[in-house]
Every structure is written in C-alpha cells, then in structure tokens.
Write a structure and sequence with these properties.
CATH superfamily: Electron Transport, Fmn-binding Protein, Chain A
Shape: globular
Largest sheet: 8 strands, antiparallel
Strand content: 35-45%
CATH architecture: Roll
Distance between the termini: 13 Å
Number of domains: 1
Number of strands: 10
CATH class: Mainly Beta
Helix content: 10-25%
C-alpha cells in the first residue's frame, strides 16, 4: 500500500468527534521521514481554525525522543486508529524509539507522503501538518490551581501549531 491507495479528504470533511479522537482514541504523533523518524502516542491536542487556516495543536515534552524530530522537521503527522490497534498505541506511548524499534514491536507499517512525512498503513485517519508556531508552557501563566500537578518533574510541554496541509482516510 502507498499513500495513493488512501482517500484524500478536506479538513472540514473530518466527521469524527475531535474530543473522542484525541482524548479517548489517542493518536500517533510522528515527525521525520523513512530515513529517520519517531512516533509517540499522544492524547493532548486539538483542531480548529487559527489565522484563517485549518490547524491542529499538539504537545511534546522535551525529554521525549519525538521532540528532536519535531524540532528538526517542518512537517509532522497525526495518525488515528481503530480500537483494535490500542495495544500498538500503548506500546508507542510506553517505549522509547531511542531503544526500541516501535515498528517491529507493533507491526505498524509506515508510509511516506509526497512531502516525505510518515503515515501508517493501518491508520483510519491521517492528518499532515506544516509547523506554523511553537511555544513552551510557562507555569507562571497557569490561571487556576492544580494544572501544575500535571508537571511533578517540571518538564513542561512545547506546544506546536500546525497548518493542516492534507488529510487522508483509509476508507475508499
């Protein structure tokens, strides 16, 4: 299978509930290309319109291996899966790509887009994004108590905002 076998859709045609997709179903955040890439499971982020563009936003802690790939690459992807891939998503969230070949451990098959970003053959929805902006979480900007409890190690996320440049689903 190649990306040619996928069904290209417009961002506004994503008909799944975004809250369910991100928080309940999770996604794989990937950056790099087939020469060198990493992926991690994520469940924090969102989608919407910003600067008159369809965008996503996602978060990566600096100690994650994927952080390096997010910093080095202009393009990143979000890949969403059916529930049958929950074990693979669990592994991609628990194991580091520094020590583990996640593709071998999970059986996921990476595909490369024309922009050389990474999707997965088994994904049901793939969103390809170009980085537009980033900012680091600043704890002094928390407006309510308790948010800092998400950061017992004070390892604050970097937030990336990406313009959605293409979307594919695996349903022809």
């Amino acid at each position: 299978m190649t990306y040619h076998d996928l069904n290209k859709i417009e961002p506004q045609d994503i008909d799944q509930n975004v809250f369910r997709l991100i928080d309940d179903d999770w996604f794989l955040l990937s950056a790099g290309n087939t020469d060198a890439f990493n992926t991690m499971t994520a469940s924090w982020g969102g989608m919407g319109i910003l600067w008159n563009k369809p965008v996503v936003f996602c978060f990566v802690r600096p100690q994650r291996y994927t952080y390096k790939f997010m910093e080095l690459n202009e393009i990143f992807t979000m890949s969403f899966f059916e529930e049958t891939y929950r074990d693979a998503l669990n592994l991609c969230g628990k194991l580091s790509g520094r020590q583990t070949d996640k593709m071998k451990a999970t059986g996921l098959k990476p595909l490369e887009s024309p922009k050389r970003s990474i999707f997965y053959e088994q994904a049901s929805l793939m969103i390809e994004c170009r980085k537009l902006y980033f900012t680091d979480i600043i704890p002094e900007h928390f407006l309510i108590e308790g948010i800092n409890l998400n950061y017992p190690k004070k390892d604050y996320h970097r937030m990336y905002i990406g313009e959605i440049i293409s979307c594919y689903n695996n349903f022809k």
